[in-house]
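Deliverable D4.2, example record:
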Amino acid sequence: MSDVAVYLVLSGAVFAGAFVSGLSGFAFSAVAGAILLHVFPPIEAVPLMMACSITVQAANLFALRKSMQWKTSLVFIAGGLLGIPIAIYFLQNVDTGMFRLGFGILVSLYAAYALLRPTAAYLRQMDSRSRNALVGFGGGLVGGLTAMPGALPAIWCDIHGLPKTQQRGLVQPYIGVMQLFALALILSHHSLSLKVLIDFGISLPALAAGTAVGIVLFGRVNEAAFKRIILGLLLFSGLCLVI
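Output generated by the structure prediction step:
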C-alpha cells in the first residue's frame, strides 16, 4: 500500500472514530480499530488508538464541561481504577480470548434486545453507591481486556433511562480517567515508538474534524435518537469482539 493510501486510510479511520466518539462519548477504538487493525500491526495500532481516543475524550470533556457530573462519576471511577490493574495482569498472564468473545456476545444480545423492545421499563434511580462502584469496577476490568471501558456504564445508564445529557455527563469523565490510567500503566512498561508519534501527528486534522462534527451533532439529536445511537454502537462494538 502506498504512503498516500495509508494516509487516506488512517485519516478516514480516525475521522470515523472521532465522529462517533464526539457524538456518543465512546466507541472510538471499536470504529477506528475495525479499519486500523487491518492496516497496522497491533503494536502500532493499539497505542495509536489509545492516544487518539484520549485526545477525543479531552475535547469532549472541555466542550461539554458544563454538563459533566464529576461528583457522581467518582464512585464509578474509584471502582474502575481497581479493575484496570487486574485486567492488565490477566492480559500479560492469561489467554483472554474467550472472555472477549463472551463479553462481545452479551453486549450484542443486550443491545439487540434493547433496540427491539416495544417499551422500555427502567429501574429506579442510581442511588446505590455500591452497585455503581461495582459497575465501575466491571467497566475497568472489561476496558483493560477489550478497550471498551464505557460499555458497562453505558448499559447501566440505559437500564436506568438516563437522559442523554446526564448519561454523557456521567460516562464521559469515567472513560477519560480509565483511558488515561490504562495508557499510563502501559507506558510504564513500554514507550511509544517514533512511528506511532508520527502517525498520531498525521491524524490530528482528521481527529479534530471528526470530534467537532460529532459534538455539534450531539447537541442536535433528540433523546430517542441518541438512545438508538448508543445501542447501535454497543451492538457494533460487541460484534467487533465476536467476529
